[in-house]
Amino acid sequence: MAxxxxxxxxxxxxxxxxxxxxxQRLERPRFRDLTTTSQQAVAGLAAPAMSGSVxxxxxxxxxxxxxxxSLWSDFQTNTKRPIHKWKHYxxxxxxxxxxxxxxxxxxxxxxxxEGGSLQMWKRYLGPHARIVGIDINPACQAxxxxxxxxxxxxxxxxxxxxxxxxxxxxxxxxxxDGSHVMSHIQASFxxxxxxxxxxxxxxxxxxxxxxxxxFEGGLKRKSSFIEHCKDLVDELNADHARNALEPTEFxxxxxxxxxxxxxxxxxxxRHTQKAAPKIGSRTSALPQNFTGFWPKT
Length: 297
Ligand SMILES: C[S@@+](CC[C@H](N)C(=O)[O-])C[C@H]1O[C@@H](n2cnc3c(N)ncnc32)[C@H](O)[C@@H]1O
Known about the structure:
Layout: H1 2-9, H2 17-27, H3 36-42, H4 71-76, H5 90-97, E1 106-110, H6 116-125, E2 130-135, E3 148-152, H7 158-168, E4 173-176, H8 182-192, E5 201-204, H9 225-236, H10 249-253, E6 254-260, E7 263-268
Parallel strand pairs: 1-2, 1-4, 2-3, 4-5
Antiparallel strand pairs: 5-7, 6-7
The chain binds S-adenosylmethionine (SAM).
Residues 83-85, 109-113, 116-117, 134-137, 154-156, 177-179, 184 line the site of S-adenosylmethionine.
């Protein structure tokens, strides 16, 4: 009490020491946003001579600004049902899921395990989120609670998946953490991807199994989901294939594909118009008859 009276008594032009420390902190460059090289540059230190090093770039994996709870810290401090995830998945989750935080998002997770991930999504996505867990193991029914529903069935059974959609509606997020068998992943993707929201996200994890024989995978093996994704990269770009490839609904409805170690993410969104206008005024430094070549048509 005595301390706070003291601080109230200070002339308003002289900031309290604690306040000036705070101000200094706010004015300081935000080192966490910068690469190591740029931190050294800001601090006036010689940057290591690295060829091709990128300076002053923001970290694209940085969580959404509005999210105060890090999924990673939630995972690390979890005392509820067990969650089983690879550590390096967390930045990817935050990157692709953070825009749904505190919305009325419908998330479907294939593969409930011991129920902990369902609870983690509920905590992360907020009070309006609805989480639907799908699992082949009937014991997973016990994981149902407020905001979490569980339906028992096989992820390769498309009739079952269609029933789940009919019951719960259009998912905004699908996360496939189920059997990790190639034909199962493919069956779920074929049925669910066209049905997710037009700005939805579809993520398949643990795709190291795409290289493992016992999961119907193998390097360059046609049945591997990674091989299917390589073809989908072409389908994403079909508008530019000069009739070599017919654009499909996938071409029209997919904005981006992201590849990580063991993860593939599809982000949906409808292209309004694909065009490459040139905007701006000509610089006098260029000759009048200057023509450049940019492969835009
Ligand atoms: C890796 S665990 C899920 C882990 C959980 N998501 C987590 O993060 O803690 C895989 C789950 O997929 C389920 N599963 C296996 N084959 C399946 C199938 N064909 N259809 C649906 N679920 C399946 C298993 O019963 C198991 O619970």
